[in-house]
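User: Teach me something about this protein's shape.
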Amino acid sequence: MPLPFALDHINLWLLEDGDGWTFIDCGIGDDATRALWERIFAGRIAGRPIRRLIVTHHHPDHAGLASWLTERTSAEFWMPQAEYFAAHAMREGSAGFGFDNVVAMFVRNGLSGEKLELMKQRRTNYRSRVPSFPSVYRRLMDGQAHRIGGRDWKVVMGYGHAPEHAALYCEDLGVLVSGDMVLPRISTNVSVWANEPEGNPLALFLDSISRYAGLPATTLTLPSHGLPFWGLRERIAQLQEHHRLRLAELHEACETPKAAADVLDTLFRRKLDTHQLFFAMGEAMAHLHLLHHDGRLKHSVGADGVVRYAQN
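Assistant: First, the predicted structure itself:
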């Protein structure tokens, strides 16, 4: 399905389930995506029931049409608990999830001037991309097995990219639906969020992807962005090395005190649009937080209220 971002698509997965189907993720909540779904309903799956919709996490490209699809199909709606409540909190701007909290966090981490003004204008667009959300759900839990098409699909939770991201693994088929946790060409965004401003999400993410490295070398991975691929273990090793190098670069950059906004050029060597800047700030903070939690950096708050990091 198309997306209105630089990352211009999301892969959604339809699993045959007896005489019906199970859907994994649903796309952004706009008219163009609804129209594409209607074409799918009129095609190969016409006349067959949709048994369940599984949403891996709350981000709008995955969850945007959850209400519409479940109402359209009467499918069961399955989602991790933390993701379900995060979606509602994001839609309502609940405590810690409002955009004012995001701006305040970015200011505290050094964002200023033109970049800050652009960020203030961005505001949150979650509600426009997730126009409604189901009022009831069924809870996905780590280790849970779902019988789909006569085979067991095991839930494998991951952390760091989202509060409680669900991947699904079928041992019989040797297939992992990885969602956003393992992507073939780009690194998954791992950000500090305003509701947990002292969090250490990169440590959680690296710990999570190491769990997938124990799957068989022949595993076929179905990601949410990019093409399906073999070589899961090799890709995980690449991601681990990518973050190791980024952490080393940041540690070197912090020979003198630096705020997260000061190290954006170290991590991202391309020009960032406002959408990308939002995620880049969160990712810079995530790397600095890991270095701080590991004792490689210390931090202090200046007279201007900005948090800066320096080598121990």
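Now, about its shape. The first strand starts at residue 13 and ends at 17. The two ends are 47 Å apart (CA to CA). If you'd like, I can walk through any region in more detail.
User: That's plenty for now, thanks!
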